[in-house]
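Q: I'm writing up a methods section and want to include an example of the input and output format. Could you take the sequence below and give the corresponding predicted structure tokens, formatted cleanly so I can copy it straight into the document?
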Amino acid sequence: MNKYKKLIISLIADAVGLVSYLFPGVAELSDVIWAPVAAWLMTKLYKGPAGKVGAIIAFAEEILPNTDIIPSFTLMWIYTYVLKKEKDVPK
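A: Here is the clean output for your methods example:
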């Protein structure tokens, strides 16, 4: 997948995690549903050990209270394509 498509998906995933704050009282329930979905999505977007660690972090960030503000997907994209400088491999 193109690295810019991953960036857009990452931004959307982080936004979905924040949407729960718009509905008081619903945030806890939506986090219980979103946390495993976020972890699964992280493993699909970012392969290998980094993706697995990212999935654990994304799950914890979504399930723990008051941590939804952390953009775990976007931080993973920055780690993968800016810090690690992974090349975009076409398929």
